[in-house]
Specification:
Layout: H1 3-25, H2 38-41, H3 51-54, E1 64-65, E2 68-72, E3 80-89, E4 107-113, E5 120-122, E6 125-126, E7 132-138, E8 141-149, E9 157-165, E10 179-182, E11 185-190, E12 193-194, E13 198-207, E14 210-211, E15 224-229, E16 235-240, E17 248-254, E18 259-269, E19 272-283
Parallel strand pairs: 12-19
Antiparallel strand pairs: 1-2, 2-3, 3-7, 4-5, 4-8, 6-7, 8-9, 10-11, 11-13, 13-14, 13-17, 15-16, 15-18, 16-17, 18-19
């Protein structure tokens, strides 16, 4: 084969390789800066947008699913209190305008740094142009932004995208704990996270050793629990159970794998919403002592 022919074949191969890489990359959240856990890599979890495979994945790992996509206005923001703006687009690529109301809101936004710190559960405002906007407090590092919503006539979705915050990153390693203290309240998590089954969890709120029996409804319940898998921050299903105003608030959780999990419990008392944080392990049929 002549040298010009070899060069032409080589160039053609580069074009094909580039086109293939671009096609795959278009399905990937381009700012995912940490690898997915080993149990997800086998199906290329972060890169697959196909509905049949997506339905087997925890929420929040993908920037788009079933044709719906989370489009952040900016993917890099300075530290401090900053405005995050984004649009949810529908399968036709148009801004989504019809939402179901879940827990008294059309959309719930979660912001958390990838080490599990800085958790914020906020509720953006949707403008006439269908763009959502809210303020969050950001520290240097890589942040994951989750949009939890239900399009009209569709099942609920949780989409995720990364925001980079430049600056010197200070990371405090997470320590396993099922007890949290916040603003003088002691919040305890009891129950075991087990893979492959529904796990019953109970959160108990006390202050100065006295059970809090007058928790106030917040978003239609006496508490809300968000669970994120350590590492890839997969967003897990946690369902609140009916309960009284405390001190016990029950939940049912479903975990897809063994490993460590960040749990965040929002509750309202004396007119203030507070967040208790836990870091616990789940195992195949194991029961962790609290």
């Amino acid at each position: 084969m002549s040298t010009p022919t070899r060069l032409a074949v080589f160039a053609g191969g580069l074009v094909v390789a580039f086109a293939t890489a671009w096609g795959v990359g278009s399905f990937v959240d381009p700012l995912l800066d940490e690898p997915l856990a080993a149990h997800d890599m086998g199906e290329d979890a972060g890169a697959v947008e196909d509905h049949a495979q997506a339905t087997h994945l925890p929420g929040g790992l993908m920037v788009s699913q079933d044709g719906y996509a989370l489009a952040l206005e900016e993917n890099t923001l300075s530290p401090g209190r900053r405005s995050i703006a984004f649009t949810i687009t529908d399968p036709e690529g148009e801004p989504l305008s019809a939402y179901e109301t879940e827990h008294e809101k059309e959309l719930h936004l979660i912001a958390v740094r990838r080490d599990g710190s800085g958790f914020q559960h906020v509720h953006p405002t949707r403008g006439a142009d269908e763009q959502w906007r809210t303020d969050v407090h950001l520290t240097p590092g890589s942040w994951r932004i989750f949009a939890d919503f239900t399009p009209a006539g569709h099942e609920g979705l949780t989409l995720g995208a990364d925001v980079i915050v430049p600056g010197r990153v200070t990371t405090v390693p997470a320590i396993r704990t099922s007890t949290s203290t916040v603003d003088g309240y002691t919040v305890m998590l009891t129950g075991d996270l087990s893979v492959g089954t529904s796990s019953d969890l109970t959160v108990t709120v006390t202050r100065d050793g006295v059970p809090i029996t007058d928790l106030e409804p917040y978003l239609g319940a006496y508490g809300h629990l968000v669970a994120l898998r350590a590492g890839d921050l997969a967003y897990l299903h946690v369902h609140p159970e009916e309960s009284g105003p405390g001190p016990d608030v029950p939940f049912v959780a479903e975990v897809p794998s063994a490993g460590d999990f960040h749990l965040y419990f929002d509750f309202q008392h004396d007119g203030v919403v507070r967040t208790a944080e836990f870091f616990v392990a789940a195992g195949e049929g194991e029961h962790d002592e609290h």
